[in-house]
Amino acid sequence: MQNTHSTAFASAPPKAAPWALSGSKRLFDIACAILCVTAAAPLMFVLALVIKVSSRGPFLFRQNRMGRNDEEFQVLKFRTMYSTTADSSGALITRSGDSRVTRVGGWLRKWKLDELPQFVNVLKGDMSIVGHRPDMRKYMQTLTGQGRNILCHRPGITSPASLKFRNEEQELAKVPAEEMEQFYISTLLPQKIGMDLEYAERATFLTDCRILLQTALSVLWRHRG
After folding, report:
1. Number of Cα atoms under 13 Å in the Cβ half of residue 130
2. Fewer CB near the last or first residue (10 Å), C or N of the chain?
3. How far, in Å, are 36, 45, 105, 106 from residue 42 at the CA level?
């Protein structure tokens, strides 16, 4: 989807390792996405049926997010909220204990299964396997300085910041509801973007493989514990 609200986010060419913006990384993304979609197709079909049966509304959640070079695209997720609230007109940040999340949705979020449709975004070229998490224009336009250079990169399914802040919803639950959005903008988002820019500066094929392995282990280890 082409951006209709052009804004000059990147003030200077970003510092980035050759891998971060390379065609080789794109080929790696495509290969991983094809493998994951093929392997997860039966599970995704079952999850789509469960979501449809358990609550009214579509099984997919779509929302405009900021992509590479200031272009918006529709991110795909399995719907985890009741259909009357799971759209872009409602509150834009969720935290642990959010009453809008369905019972099935809570389980999907726990195991990160709601993210599976994003492999389709990777195949379309909207996203990468490893990169900063795609966010809404409302939040990305608050970035200043070098942080704006993150828009020179494709957003991703996982990243170093995603691993460190995997309990973000629990952290947000500690903040008063009326302060939650400002806390996200002033504290969490800059920290995450900073970490992911550091990743881009030293990214290699091996770092991407390591981040993928850490992501898988973090989900399994968290719930085993």
Report:
1. 31
2. C
3. 11, 5, 19, 21
